[in-house]
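Morning F.,

Quick status update on the modeling queue. The single chain you submitted on Monday has been processed. Sequence for confirmation:
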Amino acid sequence: MRKAFVDALVKHVSPDHNVFLTGDLGFMALEPLRDVMECRFINAGVAEQNMVSVAAGLAKTGFSVWVYSIAPFCYARPFEQIRNDVCFHNLPVHLVGNGGGYGYGVMGSTHHALEDYGVLLTLPGMRAYVPAFQYDLDAVVAKIQAFEDPTYLRLGKCELPAGFPRLAYSPWRRLIEGDGPILVAVGALAGSILGVLRDLDESVRPEFWVVTELPLKPEAIPATFITSLKSARALWVVEEHVAQGSFGHMLASWLLQESFRIPEFRHFHARGYPSRTFGSQAFHRTESRIDAASLLQAILARGQSLQSLQRS
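Structure tokens below.
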């Protein structure tokens, strides 16, 4: 999604009111933005804590500041500076973490971001954006640019299957209709799942939603989703994030507060490193059973179980 991100910044961000900082990353990707921002494009070096403090200082003087790095270096290493310098002062510093979830694959756990939005959303004023498709970036960057609050943007890989129609951006979108469980995915993981869901028979095919803005705000939940919930027999959530601090936990908490009675709630989430080995993003998704094949297996198994109950 980096190219779409850069194109959106070039379109929406003015060097008169913005500064862009990178932690010595983005070569062969950020050059168009560098050329537009000129002296307001700063390579802060491999010094992420200092970079965030500099961003806070610039924001305090009236700039809207974008801070870019590999996801864990963007939120984990400088967490104290994000907390103390940015969020406690509610400054317009926009953190951009590339390669969310298991995105950096074989580079290992130091380069994975499995708890990023969960951790950051504990801080005051923070909002998180997890775009699902590369064409979401135009709307997302425009929204972030309009805010005077801290934000975190998690970039991943667009995995939208060929031929799937482009849908207008919204924080909640229904991608597929079906009579199976309601399935909600967070961000880019949705694209990898779409291909196996759309060809399923309607009787088992999930009603598939994608969410791209966090934290969960009850007023932002679509009426159509709530209507579906009222008659739902099963609600499943899938995300490339650990369970703690996850969207799944946010949604479960809201369901309890609103006294929804869902017979079956399942949460598919990142489980770290069950085999204690490292591999590609696809390998880690499979180990956590958040890959398309594992979800398809769970959907079909549920359908067979329901058929057996009906026959008996």
